[in-house]
Amino acid sequence: MTNNKTNPKVDKFLSKAEKWKEEYEKLRGIVLDCELTEEFKWNLPCYTFKQSNIVIIQGFKEYCAIMFFKGALLNDPKSILIRPGENSQAQRQIRFTNVQEIVEMESILKAYIYEAVEVEKAGLEVKKKTEFKIPEELETKFNEIPALKTAFEALTPGRQRAYIIYFSKAKQSKTRESRVEKYMQQILDGKGLND
Q1: Does 87 share its domain with 145?
Q2: Cα-based distances in Å from 36 to 7, 48, 54, 164, 179
Q3: Full-model pTM
Q4: Both 59 and 100 in a single domain?
Q5: Using CA atoms, how far apart are residues 149 and 65, in angstroms rounded to an integer?
Q6: For residue range 119-169, what is the model confidence (pLDDT) as tens digits?
């Protein structure tokens, strides 16, 4: 079943795009040629296979990109997949600064997209790193306030990870300590860093 219909929400998004419009349209055409379903998620053109996210088209100040949700599982013979952020575990991007780069890479992009669909069909999952070193300052608070440790352990792994990364990023112990202090009540309330 070929489903390369365009989504009216993506049409509207493209009509309003001021930057990367030509690049978005070219990427859209390539992705739709790969028989994915066009949806509009997170205010961006997103492409799915049997309701599973495969790729999303993104625009940034310096570049636009096609991001593969399970890009870490793709073979990358051309070494073009980029981790979008230092804490990204599964996603990978291919970045562009002009439409000509996209045109030149069309067949490569399609190969990567088809492989991403095969990864989804096979039911493969990215093994996410779940063990993170708890900062000493948080560990100290856990010892002082056992309820804090209990509340922290009751949080989802993603929320725990967000706190650990945020607390650990501070270079000085004093700053880590004040960050832990600031968010103790939020942890006790069962809330994540950004809730």
Answers
A1: no
A2: 12, 6, 8, 37, 44
A3: 0.69
A4: yes
A5: 40
A6: 999 998 887 665 678 889 999 989 999 899 899 889 888 888 889 889 988
